[in-house]
Amino acid sequence: MTRNGLVSGVLVLVAASGVFAANAGAADEVKPSSSRAADEASYVRAEDVVYGRKFGTALTLDIFTPREHANGLGVIWVASHGFVSSHDDIKLVFVERLVARGYTVFAVVHGCQPKFTVPEFLQDMNRAVRFVRFHARDYKVDPDRLGIYGASGGGYLSLMQATAGDRGNPDSTDPVERTSSRVQAVACFFPLTDFLNYGKPGESWEHYFEKALGRGALAQLKAAFDFHERDEKTGTFERVTDEAKVRGILKQVSPVTHVSEDDPPTLIIHGDADDVVPIQQSESFVAKLKGAGVEAKLVVKPGAGHQGWADLPKDVGLLADWFDDHLKASGNSGEKP
């Protein structure tokens, strides 16, 4: 499936078109009325900037702007874990090192479980990247050099954006929706990459979680995979119960499905003792990227589990190094098909 076709092919399961308001140029969204100096010496934080709306709900991001030595580059932090996203998930430990390097950081909150499902998360992230690129000049960053990063579920969404971001809908009346959602570099921690081959070939994510972590852990994630599709006759949404159809959706929302030669440089950091997201997810994904001729690097943390290693904050610096290497010299417009 083409990049432009991913959202239209998968998100038939969620909202009809027009779910986002075409008001992204409103003054209160480009220049939010409330901002605070979170750290007088390093950055200004603008909170709850509205990047889109759906079903009467505002989608927001926070913007961290360096007070000094801004490098003119933007990176998007996906504030998400366990398929849950909230303003409280904007952890400064994942932001401050990037700001200190001169990056403007856009911390994105997406619609999440139990209300929304994985395909809807992807729709939100596409919208967020489009919004950042459309307003990049307002935030004094280069629209052609955007990076994205996250951890766990946020890492997964980062890789989906890297592999399946698209060029936008040229027929949309909303100028934000006509804007590319491609990114030029990606770096992440312990991401999910393949829901149908999880832990080993042929094992589904559900079977792995139930076997390795128990039904309780599985139950905590199920709402994100409670797929629905619209019945055109009745106008209502019905649960998808056909196993083949569910597998088809899981394939389409797996980053590994969308690997191609034009994907951006990719860095993954993963512990080899992770029992939540097995390192196999990163190993197989990086191998496929390299097979497609994409620059990719896997940093393995010996003995580290999921999120729990002591030098995790320090390792955010490795992500910053990656962006230094691949955004500062990037000429990629993000407009590849």
Task: Walk me through the structure.
It is a single chain. This protein is of the alpha/beta class. Helix content is 29%, strand content 20%. It is built from 10 helices and 11 strands. It has helices at residues 3-10, 27-30, 96-100, 118-134, 153-164, 205-212, 215-221, 243-252, 280-291, 312-327, and strands at 35-39, 43-54, 57-66, 74-78, 104-108, 146-151, 185-189, 228-230, 237-239, 266-271, 296-301. A 9-stranded mixed beta sheet has the order 1-2-3-5-4-6-7-10-11, with helices on both faces. The chain has a two-stranded antiparallel ribbon with strand order 8-9. Helix 6 packs antiparallel against helix 7 (215-221). The radius of gyration is 19 Å and the shape is globular. Residues 1-5, 7-39 and 331-337 have low confidence and may be disordered.
Widest sheet: strand ordering: 1-2-3-5-4-6-7-10-11
Counting structural domains, the number is 1
Got a strand count? 11
Encode the helix/strand succession as letters: HHEEEEHEHEHEHHEEHEHEH
Could you list the spans in which at least 5 consecutive residues all have pLDDT below 50?
1-5, 7-39, 331-337
CATH architecture: 3-Layer(aba) Sandwich
Q: What is the fold's blueprint, element by element?
A:
Blueprint: H1 3-10, H2 27-30, E1 35-39, E2 43-54, E3 57-66, E4 74-78, H3 96-100, E5 104-108, H4 118-134, E6 146-151, H5 153-164, E7 185-189, H6 205-212, H7 215-221, E8 228-230, E9 237-239, H8 243-252, E10 266-271, H9 280-291, E11 296-301, H10 312-327
Parallel strand pairs: 4-5, 4-6, 6-7, 7-10, 10-11
Antiparallel strand pairs: 1-2, 2-3, 3-5, 8-9
